[in-house]
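re: ur question from earlier - yeah i can do the single chain one, its not a big deal. heres the input i used so u can compare w yours
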Amino acid sequence: MGFETKTGLSINQTWQQWISFSLNSWNTINYDLNSFENMPEEQNLGLFLNKIIVNYADLAQCSFAEHKSKYFQIINEYNENLDDENKERLLNCLIKATKKAKVSSTYEKKRFYLEMQTKQLLCDSENDMYYDSIKEYLEAIIEEYISLPYYERERIYFRDQYEKIQKALSEHVYLKISIGNKDLKIRPLMIETDKSTNYNYLICTEAPQGIDHLISLRLHHIKLIYKTRDKFKALNKEETKKLRSLVDKYSAPYLKGISDPMIKVHLTKSGMENYKAWINQRPPYTGEPEILEYENETYFVLTFNCSKRQVQNYFFKFGADAMITEPEDLRDLFSKMYDKASDIYKSMKEEN
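and the output i got, formated as tokens:
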């Protein structure tokens, strides 16, 4: 079985394949390519598509052969007396009725070489029963992939790393990882999807630190993962509850720095309106806002129990509408950053 029977192609031959992209799929593929690999599409498109196809084909709903048993189970619930031939006939009718239409408006058409794993997948696949060509099947996989939210696409592209982490979590073993220019031995604790950033994070500690020293690492920043033979003790009920509480309170992107002191921010009326409107990565304040009148201006004083990094990332764009008053080192950092930006503008103005 497999597409080899229809095409007459041999796995030892060089396979080239044309793929048609809709505007949406082309933009998404390019976005992911730059995000995951940080390379121009001309250099890496073929490698990227091969990886998506191999990593996602067995999961994709459009791979009907891989889900046949599930569909047969549904059919059996309605009529358990059907023989296999009639089940297959009914399944084909259902697939024809639910199969997505082909790309109707081609924005780009690209040719790429199929790697050995991709060719083996197609030769072993029984999806040739449901698709007229390799091209149609591969386009169905790609169109389904681009319909997923970013964090799911990230898990698919980095499926190998994701599964290694999940296995280490289930076996309670330390991992050695490479991130940036650093090699770390870490104790994996969980993989968390942060909906505000749409990214996946590995929540862990550097061995042998406890959960009071949590760090979070972007999944796609981790380049290499090695499983060790060293085991760690699984979290008990109380520790698991504490871990969940910390992640919920500070959010995955800002776990490094959870021991930061209470932070106070003065917002103008305009700043308060912006705070209510700009929800992406917004830190929640504690208690009730304090109203302060100063030089005919109303300020809202908010207190935050979050990391300095989150306050820096979120409030820097507020400019004069937000003033950090505590702690002193964070206030000084904002002042220096604004002074530096002002100096750049002044020097550019003098040159002109």
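The chain has a mean pLDDT of 85. not sure if urs matches, ping me
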